[in-house]
Amino acid sequence: MSNRAHQSPSAPARRGGRSVQTLALQLAAVALSFILIALLVVTSSRQAFVAQNDNVSNQVTAAAVDLTDNDAGTAMFANLTGLLPGTNVDKCIDVTYTGSVDPTAVLLYVNAAPTGTGLATYLNLTIDIGADTADAFRTCTSFTSSATLYNGTLSGFAAAYASYATGLSTWDPVGSPETRTFRFRLSVQNDPAAEGLSSTFGFSWETRTS
Fold first, then answer.
1. What is the pLDDT of residues 135-154, one digit of tens each?
2. How far apart are CA 137 and CA 147, in angstroms?
3. Same domain, yes or no, for 41 and 74?
4. In b/e form, how buried is each residue of 137-175, taking b as 16+ CB within 10 angstroms?
5. Residues 139 and 43 in one domain
6. pTM of the prediction?
7. Is residue 53 part of a domain?
């Protein structure tokens, strides 16, 4: 009987201890639940304010700046011999702009200094520009001049317009394709010093975007 009386008070103490531990665990679980809920709320708020802007399938094409002519790779004055004073020799050529942008003015210049035995000094050169004609290369039957671009000697032209930097402005294309016809007129001066002389020369047209 004395042993039972000694053990009976200790049982409630252990139950009380377990109750405190259980309560502490429950409170911790509740606190953890609040923390998880708070984290979920914050995460949900961040997703709700996401902003997105897509930029895909970009494509870029370079500008085209092209000049062509109808000479088929041959010279306007090919193997021209027997020039006499007072006789004009006319040759026409079409130059066409076919680019995709609005370029600067088309400039005309010699592509190399005249060579030969010195006829360039005694060779008169007149360059006119006009609207596009249906004439074949070298033919000027339908040509009508709208402006005279140059009137002097071949050597004078070569000295003044030796490169693109000093080129002679011809016309400023505003569309594509756009064609102008040029007439080159040559005549030899009535000067005995010109007899038997020769000259070789060439011309270039060029335009740029700036």
1. 999 999 999 999 999 999 99
2. 20
3. no
4. ebebeebebeeebbeebbbbbbeebeeeeebbebbebee
5. no
6. 0.73
7. no
Same domain, residue pair 126 and 195: yes
Cα 57 to the center of its chain, rounded Å: 21
Shared domain check, 41 and 113: no
pLDDT in tens, 67-90: 999 999 999 999 899 999 999 999
Sign of CA dihedral 183, 186, 187, 191: positive
Query: What is d(CA 124, CA 188) in angstroms, rounded to the nearest whole number?
Result: 6
Is 8 found in the same domain as 89?
no
d(CA 155, CA 15): 123
Say yes or no to pLDDT of 13 above 70: no
- Give residue 107's domain range: 67-206
Q: What confidence tier does 5 reach under pLDDT thresholds 50, 70, 90?
A: very low
pLDDT of amino acid 1: 44
Determine the Cα–Cα distance for residues 144 and 131; give it in Å rounded to an integer: 7
Is 57 among the domain residues? no
How many structural domains are present in the chain? 2
Whether residues 90 and 147 share a domain: the answer is yes
State phi, psi for 15 to the nearest 5 degrees.
Answer: -65, -40
φ, ψ at 89 (rounded to 5°): -120, 115
The residue written with tokens 């001066």 in the block is 189
